# Entry
Amino acid sequence: MLTAVFAIATGLLVLATLAPTVRSGVWWIRGFDFPRLQLTVLSALVLVLHLALHPLDDAWTVAIVAVNAACMLWQAWWIVPYTRLARPEVHSAPAGAQPRLRLMASNVLMHNRNADRLLSLVREHAPDVLIALETDTWWEGRLDTLQDTMPHVIRCPLDNLYGMHVYSRLPLLTPRIRYLVEDDIPSMHATLDLEGRHIALHALHPRPPSPTEADSSVERDAELVAVGRAARASPVPVIVAGDLNDVAWSRTTRLFRKVSGLLDPRIGRGMFNTFHAHLPGLRWPLDHLFHSRHFTLVGMRRLPDIGSDHFPILVELALSPGENDADAGLDADARAREDAEAALDEAEADRAPVPR
# Structure
């Protein structure tokens, strides 16, 4: 009886482990990218219980244990880079490195009305740039009170959960609102003037995979590829930030990193899980900041609850070219280039052409 129970549990873990290997945009398949930490822990628990309750006295039991252990190790392989067991991808900033840039990103949850919590954090931490997501006209009215210290603003209030605002202490040169893939999903792009040095900023919030569409991750993937290519081609340092509705270790995010050449300051430091703020056992890193090799990390932290389902995140960088390893990041191999083209082609087949 116990053998059958553990065989069924292991079979389910195998299905959850294999699902993300299927090259599909179907939401429930892509969704198995998210809980790799939880599945690692679950595999470990099943493994410990199996060994404690059932001796390894036959080939069938040994096979079940081996398969479960393989699932656990495979899941762990994806998340270990986002722990202190891995070597940091981005170097820590040298003492006194200047100039510095502090950026805060927060998915406010449109129906959340605790604006004072976010405003208090902004006043406390004094970011140079605030990216606020899911903002409507109500949120715009509250956030506009920041203009005494952050006078440079890009506004796009929407009531569809994809509104976006950028507030900046630094001048925003050539600010643009673009609809790269879907006509109701904006992204914001500008050049920051940091003490006379220009930095390209891209703020994103693509639509997540959804059970209401067959290939619902297609548009998200295409938007990330389009921005990734723009980042690689940029003649100035680059920062891409926002709620990507994807985890840091997914195939889509890894493809974005390969295409863009950008670095992830979380690697070797922690996951910085920002969602879900009210479900401690089900949290993933959905809010991201990637940057070019020009930056080193001063500090990164998840901020307290503001009443949203996301925690805000605060990142401080130093503009210090040459400090990071030349081979840091992920290589854009031939497979990545093919996947990038496929993502753009799929989006174009469904909708308007995507910038290449």
Summary: The longest helix spans residues 59-79. The CA atoms of residues 279 and 309 lie 9 Å apart. The two ends are 57 Å apart (CA to CA).
